[in-house]
Write a structure and sequence with these properties.
By secondary structure, the chain is α+β, with helices and mostly antiparallel strands. The protein has four helices and four strands. It has a four-stranded antiparallel sheet. The longest helix is centred in the first third of the chain and has 51 residues. The relative contact order is 0.12.
């Protein structure tokens, strides 16, 4: 055999052997990477499979919790702040007070419980104002009074009835809209 042919065969065999070793090393590295990724993902997949299996029970518990808190929160929706404001106005009018100012902000959904902030300024006789505050305390769905300022109005004559001006900051919890 020609020396050049022998050298070409030896170099070709050596290169084929080096390529085979490189492919084997690369496949071992990729196999190790795959097994490491699989060890990381298997517990996550098992947890997700458990959540999927428990889905109907989770949904049932969510519905039960929603039914339990439903009497405490105002209905949600696009007009939630208007509806809460109208409900508060009905309570004010029913108590016999005069609403000087009544403003409702849009529901604050960033908090844990979505709520509508209402600012109200009311006037009326002292006993009527006390009755309104008691009614507000017992109201369901709830109105949370965050701040209350009370000022006496009118003259200081013993024959005239005492009137007061109530300035209230009220939060009304609102049910979140169901997401499809």
């Amino acid at each position: 055999m020609n020396p050049w042919t022998r050298r070409a065969l030896i170099v070709s065999a050596t290169l084929a052997l080096l390529i085979a070793v490189a492919v084997g090393a690369a496949s071992q590295w990729l196999l190790h990477r795959y097994q490491t990724g699989l060890q990381t993902l298997e517990p996550r997949i098992e947890r997700l499979a458990g959540v999927v299996e428990e889905g109907p029970q989770i949904q049932a518990r969510l519905e039960q919790a929603t039914q339990q808190i439903a009497p405490w929160v105002h209905p949600g929706g696009p007009n939630a702040s208007t509806e809460v404001q109208q409900r508060l106005r009905q309570l004010i009018d029913g108590a016999g007070l005069t609403a000087v100012a009544l403003q409702a902000a849009e529901p604050d959904a960033s908090a844990t419980i979505a709520r509508v902030r209402i600012s109200a300024t009311l006037t009326g006789p002292w006993p009527t104002a006390l009755g309104f505050l008691q009614t507000l305390q017992q109201q369901r769905p709830v109105f949370w009074v965050q701040s209350l300022a009370l000022m006496r109005e009118g003259r200081d004559a013993p024959t005239e009835p005492q009137t007061v001006r109530l300035t209230l900051q009220i939060d009304a919890p609102v049910a979140r809209e169901a997401t499809p």
